[in-house]
## 1
Amino acid sequence: MRWPWSSTSEERDEREPPPWTDALNETHWSHYRDPRNVVPALILTGCALSVAALYRKYLKRIPQAINIGPSYWRKRSLFGRVTSVGDADNFRLFHTPGGRLAGWGILPWRKVPQTTKELKEKTVHIRLAGIDAPEMAHFGKPAQPYSQKAFDFLNSYILHRRVRAYVYRRDQYDRAVATVYVRKWLLRRDVGLQMLKAGLATVYGAKTGAEFGNLEEKYRRMEKWAKSKKRGIWSGNKKDYESPRDYKIRTGKAA
């Protein structure tokens, strides 16, 4: 006899929840189709991909000239701090993409290394475009007149300063040939143009491989002005003058 308030085993089975292991393994596809879940997931994924692309394009540091990709040449610039000056027309740049806006010089992990050991293989070798400076002594070959003055000028003008280099190509010495600008007070100065103005460089004289951007005419006018004012290398006797290009040809030194 079954009491009125009692239930059958079948009724009890219908009311009882399924075992927890079954619920764990069950896939509720409705959650994946619910716009309240799908839309935030898509937005988050899109934001993550955008941040990654932004970092790769604008904030990824370039350690050396050999790491500069095709998208940079003649299209973009490198911003960074000058860590050393080699000759009077080339130097080393530690790339700091984004500058202070990206925390360089402010955040503890965004500092420019100071020692030669720390900087090894972490700087871009820059060759100033469009100019030739007097050659310093190399491999037993004597220095040209005004080579030390040209070096001292460039060293005092840009060493440890932030500069922007508009890169054109990589030369045979794995240097990035570039027009370089540095800020002096509120003005942006073309470093190569200032070397020409001081009479401490000539317009690049090689028939092939010359890079000027769109500044060749401006450079030639500045060289002509420095000659007329007899500044620097133009101040001596004309018959004793030897251009950096002629010196390299005579001594067998490449540009």
## 2
Amino acid sequence: MPVYLLHGFRWPRAAIRIHIILHHLDDAAAEWISAPTTTATLLASFRTLYPDPMRHLPNLQFVEQYDEKDTSPNATSQPYAFVADKVEQCGLSADVGEVMGRGVAAEGWGALAELRDLLAKGEK
């Protein structure tokens, strides 16, 4: 199973559902936001609703939490998805310090924090 290191924040599933409903995003699926159509729909929504921070987040991505060994009924809906401006897939011998050393631009850091406060108040 791949492991990812990301710079981003958790977006609670309930908040994802609320965003989709309040903004009438009929093409978005709250249970799997990394699907191409859902990703495109959410990004378009963010660009319309939050143009200032989105100017500094050209590589914004959505990452789903997933355990391929979990076959329980609860496996289809995890409590969080992740919104990230930087995602790195790490192998077993990844140098985490090197990945972190590449950093994120100051504008991107501030823009992601602003977006987090708009979408997932209280998350870190």
## 3
Amino acid sequence: MARLSYFVLSSLAILGANAAGSSVLDLIPSNFDKVVLQSGKPALVEFFAPWCGHCKNLAPVYEELATKFAGAGDKVSIGKVDADEHKSLGQRFGVQGFPTLKWFDGKSETPEDYTSGRDLESLTKFIEEKTGTKAKTQKAAPSQVEMLNDKTFKQEIGGEKDVLVAFTAPWCGHCKSLAPIWETVANDFAAEPNVLIAKVDAEAPNAKATAQDQGVSSYPTIKFFPKGSTEPQPYAGGRTEEDFIEFMNDQAGTHRAVGGGLDAKAGTVDVLDAFVAKYTAGESLASIVGEVQKAASGLKDKYAEYYVKVFTKAGNSQDYIQKELTRLEGLLKKGGLAPEKIDDLTSRSNILRKFAASTGLKDEL
């Protein structure tokens, strides 16, 4: 009975260690010993800090690693410790920098430092050699990253798209670490018709000339080409998903958020928001509508007319704004929508929230 109780408690501890939607075990002082030291199986543990740039770069690689070994959960664990929050665990195992990866063999409390590459290939090979367990090979989803060669580079650059290009080499460790992040960023911008996330294999026979023309001498080299221009801007920012999204939003005028959705500003129009501000401040609707219609007619923005529609509908129905916002939020929550539809409903919801920001709906409506 005692053994059964221990097994149940251990299983619950392991189940509770998984963050929602993640294959990586979240380890804290209360479950670390049960999951890592007392489970009888080896574990790879990352000690990280949320503010650490290298940790952010490693995160998607580490998640993919855990997913590859998720089917071998009875033979190996992949976990992580927020050593900034749980300093006692970091101190206990001599962690002095982030990220620190340590291998626990399941027999000893003294771990082995992981000192190899932080790319998926190196990490996978390490675990396979240590455990004799083969990682599950998953069918890769179609890549949204455009591979450019000497011919297609000339076709894409200088056209109607803002292009972010990573010049890479197959043997480059930093390129391998960048790869899953680059794929994620490409997925984030997949619904943006005028944005292209691309790569050039600088050592491929059909792309070497392009890399040389661009003066590429180290890897990865990242360059941004604004639409209509063949003159690049060197990218010198961070290499996390968030960093790349922020950069592209600034350069291309997009409003993507981490994960590929839209941010709270998507769809809104500053010029028309000024009229919404008048409305929410208490100005008469009748005195605003004409100005809005005039201003919207001179804009090319696809949501300009939606502002006119909302002003008009609000004048005909006192509770239109709140009802419509509730309806759109319900559709988004229900799911099952195409990406383009999600973007559209999100943009319209953002506009409606501008109106709903008033202290209360007007009596005149």
## 4
Amino acid sequence: MDSTRLSTSDDQDPWASPSNTVRNKPDSRTSADTMRADGSAPHRTTSSFSTTITNGSFGQVSKLPASSTSRESGEWGGAGLNSGFGPGDEAPGQDALASADTNRVSSRHPKKPSARRQISHGAQEVLTVDALSEKEGMFLFQYRNYEVSSNRRSTRVTRRYSDFVWLLDCLHKKYPFRQLPLLPPKRVAINGTHLAAEAQFLEKRRRGLSRFVNVLIQHPVLRDEQLVTMFLTVPTELAAWRKQAQLTVQEEFVGRTLPAQLEDSLPPTLEDLFSTVRSGVRRSSELYITICNLVERQTKRQEGLATEYSRLASNLQSLTETSKETYSIDTNDVPLLNEGLSATAKHISEHQSLLTQESASWDEGFLEDLKKQRDTLVSMRDLFDRRDRYDKDNIPQLEKRIASNEARLEGVRAKPEGARKPGESEKLEDAIHRDKQSIVNQHARSVFVKECIRDEIQFFLQSLYHVGRMCQEWASDLVRSAELTVENWREFENAADNMPTQGST
């Protein structure tokens, strides 16, 4: 059963502080079957949707209102995949999960081919996100569009940042117990002054959006979700499509029947595994957040150092203009001196170029790989946090109410026929039946949640191999950079040998 139905009627690091991200805004989902222990409702991810509750099934039904923009809607298709890859299904392999690692855009040194190890992962779909140059809207309500293109689908669609937020919010409603990707934060401003330059902020956001969509299409469940397919293929403006199409998003477990052997197939130590993985993920995510910050600062320092070498080369070259006057008493060796100074400036400038290339390689390669790993860990951390909020039931309260109603029903049946109120026993029987069915549904949901998280942990294991590839590629880049640097300094040493010295005077 497809639980998604369609009817045509910033510059701060957000991962260390979850409150800074869009995905952690309050969620207003509630459920008659899965209420919180304290009686309060769970929180939702954004405030742009209303929520309605349906009876009869465990899970939530969230009704998404239409947007205010009016245009003709596009068409889309594809089947949603609602179940996990549990027993009997093929677990995702390494080849199906490592697309962006070998397809990232990186500035490599142009002199010689890189010595990095090439690992083939098969033909993978890679999505590209580009920021369009022209803003849309008027005055204070201007915004920038992003073009999302797919090499495999041969599609090219235009989306706003708010469209990405809408998609993530829908995924949070339908797949709260999946490893959901992260969105880059909104732009941060203090007293109306933005903390990042426009170009720098846009590039960071573009890369963050690129990581977001590429993680989606690599996930074995999310990549087949209808909403994701629609997001990547509908050619019209998404806000217009949302106005024409009334969407109802249900949790993925709604309508699913608990298989007879599923609960028994889950190991009894599963909760211990969850606890252990959660502890490791929380600590690892903190470390990767710190590592990303350190590498980003190191990259900026490399850029600054390259600028200093550029100034040094310029001043060395300027010395050749003053040498003749400075040593006018005897200008015989001035040409050799100037030739040596020019060679020095040339190799210093070459080193500046190598530093710039290395900095760009770090920024577009190694740092992006680190951020992908950081996002993966934070996504898992958030998954466990969502489980604390949403994997709730009120089975003990229902059992007490059933026992009370059964006692009342026995008392009603013990009364003489004329002393009973009309329909009193039927009402109690219906209440008991509804409560028992709710217990069955809530228990089934809790089993599905465990199975889902187990599968997500299995999928998460692939990030281990991403770390290995990341370090291999970084090591190759460092070796290549060192080789080019040594080569440049050796050429400089040879050129300096021809400069006049005291011994040759």
